[in-house]
């Protein structure tokens, strides 16, 4: 059995052997893009290299990139616990060509890795191409994929763009068929969103530049950007369907089960999955300098942490749970990501503090929620004011309340929530008028958004302590 670490290493070694520089993962807080909440793909650190604004000493690179998709355009928070394939934190394996090789090489490079080095059975692989990308279609055909398993897709799923302007181009995605015991249809069918045919690798062919809204030109030197989810490919290689059954995730789930004295696969199965996932995103975010707060990135972190805490509560934990799982995560992933070990003490402290603080209001808030929904049934709506009270008085992020009600099929009245929020903000503004505090507060948040969340002095403190 290949461990997740082996799969990661084999990927990097393979592309190194094929002339790629092995580049370190960039931090989860993007350095070069203030508009992006978190690094959510391998190409993020190379954005300016693709546009030509930045030069690097190599034209081929490979990475295993830490990614978080829990806010902004890519948000998989609500998928966690429900699909077999989504995490909020995952590792994206990638190979990149900056005006070096193109489709003719990128497709065989990918195909040889998965069918030869990784040894996946060819008959279980499906590929998609953008509907008019005959070039990619022909390359796949030539390499031996039967036409019946090359699907032409016309939606934006198979056309990638950096933004309204900039590099763009068609994609080709590789899917693995996990077999007919699992619900779902092949790509391009209405059932494609099931978990039977799982997308493992996305190859982006950057061949155009969108100059203005109307004008698109061909790039003289097209580029390649690919991304494969480490957990998804590892699942395939370990003969598992579910990402949460791979060695790495399983170790976290077992730790969560041990620490809460519950069965990892019993009634609390979903909660263990959520805890394992959210533990990873929380710890990696803290290691990269994000701390829980009420704004911006810090608030996304707080939402993730609090969601996990509710699940710990569901398991019956009376004491903080998350911080006790940190050593397991560090032993699983600390070698590949040393920043985790360096920040271990800070991570554990932050989790414990947040959990201890939230515990008091979590229990009371959940009681209020129980009472408010006692007579409700599927399809009913929780009044927005109640959700707002939970948010304002008990520190429940809106999505925590939604997550709590989802299994019962109860929704939150979002308009009502927004109205209550707006009313409270108006009140607060009135109260501050004239004092000048509101303005100071705003500036302070802006500075913190800009700098505070990204600059973190913990490493220095830690290493200084380590030397004593
Ligand atoms: P999906 O359609 O399954 O949500 P995607 O098309 O959004 O995936 P991409 O943006 O193409 O994913 O990312 C490249 C690769 O990263 C995917 O092929 C997949 O292997 C992996 N990946 C994407 N999102 C996640 C996630 N939330 N958790 C784990 N792996 C992911
Ligand atoms: Mg997705
Ligand atoms: Mg997809
Ligand atoms: Mg994709």
Automatic annotation (TrEMBL):
UniProt entry keywords in alphabetical sequence: Aminoacyl-tRNA synthetase, ATP-binding, Cytoplasm, Ligase, Metal-binding, Nucleotide-binding, Protein biosynthesis, RNA-binding, tRNA-binding, Zinc
Underlying gene: alaS
Naturally occurring in which organism (per UniProt): Ferrovibrio terrae
GO terms for biological process, alphabetical: alanyl-tRNA aminoacylation; negative regulation of DNA-templated transcription
Role played: Catalyzes the attachment of alanine to tRNA(Ala) in a two-step reaction: alanine is first activated by ATP to form Ala-AMP and then transferred to the acceptor end of tRNA(Ala). Also edits incorrectly charged Ser-tRNA(Ala) and Gly-tRNA(Ala) via its editing domain.
UniProt record similarity statement: Belongs to the class-II aminoacyl-tRNA synthetase family.
Cofactor: Zn(2+)
Organism superkingdom: Bacteria
Record lineage: Bacteria, Pseudomonadati, Pseudomonadota, Alphaproteobacteria, Rhodospirillales
Protein name: Alanine--tRNA ligase
EC number: 6.1.1.7
């Amino acid at each position: 059995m290949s461990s997740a670490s082996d799969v990661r290493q084999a990927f990097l070694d393979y592309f190194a052997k094929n002339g790629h520089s092995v580049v370190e993962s960039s931090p989860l807080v993007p350095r070069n893009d203030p508009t992006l909440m978190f690094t959510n793909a391998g190409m993020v650190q190379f954005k300016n290299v693709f546009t030509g604004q930045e030069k690097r000493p190599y034209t081929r690179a490979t990475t295993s990139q830490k990614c978080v998709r829990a806010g902004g355009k890519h948000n998989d928070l609500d998928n966690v616990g429900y699909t077999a394939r989504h995490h909020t934190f995952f590792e994206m394996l990638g190979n990149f060509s900056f005006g070096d090789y193109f489709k003719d090489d990128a497709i065989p490079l990918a195909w040889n890795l998965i069918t030869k080095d990784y040894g996946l059975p060819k008959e279980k692989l499906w590929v998609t191409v953008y509907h008019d990308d005959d070039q990619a279609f022909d390359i796949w055909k030539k390499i031996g994929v039967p036409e019946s398993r090359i699907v032409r897709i016309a939606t934006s799923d198979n056309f990638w763009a950096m933004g309204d302007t900039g590099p763009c181009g068609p994609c080709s995605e590789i899917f693995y068929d996990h077999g007919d015991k699992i619900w779902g249809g092949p790509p391009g069918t209405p059932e494609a969103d099931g978990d039977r045919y799982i997308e493992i690798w996305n190859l982006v062919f950057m061949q155009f530049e969108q100059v203005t809204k109307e004008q698109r030109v061909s790039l003289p030197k097209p580029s390649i950007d690919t991304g494969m989810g480490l957990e998804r490919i590892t699942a395939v290689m370990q003969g598992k369907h579910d990402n949460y059954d791979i060695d790495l995730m399983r170790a976290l789930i077992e730790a969560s089960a041990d620490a809460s004295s519950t069965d990892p696969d019993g009634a609390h199965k979903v909660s263990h999955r959520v805890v394992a996932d959210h533990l990873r995103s929380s710890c990696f975010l803290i290691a990269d300098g994000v701390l829980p707060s009420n704004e911006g990135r810090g608030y996304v972190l707080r939402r993730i942490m609090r969601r996990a805490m509710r699940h710990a509560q569901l398991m019956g934990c009376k004491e903080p749970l998350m911080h006790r799982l940190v050593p397991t995560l560090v032993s699983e992933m600390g070698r590949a990501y040393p920043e985790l070990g360096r920040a271990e003490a800070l991570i554990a402290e932050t989790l414990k503090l947040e959990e201890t603080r939230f515990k008091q209001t979590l229990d009371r808030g959940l009681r209020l929620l129980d009472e408010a929904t006692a007579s409700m049934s599927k399809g009913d709506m929780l009044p927005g004011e109640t959700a707002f009270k939970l948010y304002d008085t008990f520190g429940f992020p809106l999505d925590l309340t939604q997550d709590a009600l989802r299994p019962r099929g109860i929704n939150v009245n979002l308009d009502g929530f927004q109205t209550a929020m707006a009313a409270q903000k108006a009140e607060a503004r009135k109260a501050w008028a004239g004092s000048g505090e509101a303005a100071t507060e705003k500036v302070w948040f802006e500075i913190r958004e800009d700098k505070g969340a990204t600059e973190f002095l913990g490493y220095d403190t830690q290493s200084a302590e380590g030397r004593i």
